[in-house]
Amino acid sequence: MAKAKKKAQQEVVKPEKDVVASMAEAFREKLLKIVQSGVKDLVIDLMGVEMVDSVGIGVLVATHNSVSKAGGKMSVTNVSEDIYKLFKTMRLDQHFEVSPVAG
Question: What's the whole-model pTM score?
């Protein structure tokens, strides 16, 4: 599953595995509960995630839309080089902040 750490109005969620169809439903439900709890700054930490498929991207976009409607923001951090290139190509970085792995 995914780990979550909460600090005031910020919550950091770390999927712990690839964001793909096989885990997308449980991940989406977890993110939805976090958004509904009133978090205004959602950070998804993709450290160690090697793959995000189209279903995973759909979960991220839907979560971004939900957070935005609630007046908050979402960012994705520690994105691998390949996933970062994918997000840039799809222009997802124009909708939410995407930060590559530092180093």
Answer: 0.89
Q: Cα–Cα distances in Å, from 24 out to 9, 34, 58, 82, 102?
A: 24, 15, 9, 20, 26
pLDDT at position 53? 96
Domain count, the chain: 1
More confident residue, 18 or 101: 18
The set of residues, in sequence order, having a beta carbon less than 8 Å from that of 41 and lying 6+ positions away, is: 9, 10, 11, 72, 73, 75
What are the tokens at 86?
Answer: 């994918």
User: What residues make up the domain containing 52?
Assistant: 3-100
- Structure tokens of 65? 């839309």
Q: Which residue has the higher pLDDT, 58 or 101?
A: 58
38 within 8 A of 61, measured Cβ to Cβ: no
Residues 6+ apart with CB under 8 A from 37: 11
**Residue 92: which CATH number?**
3.30.750.24
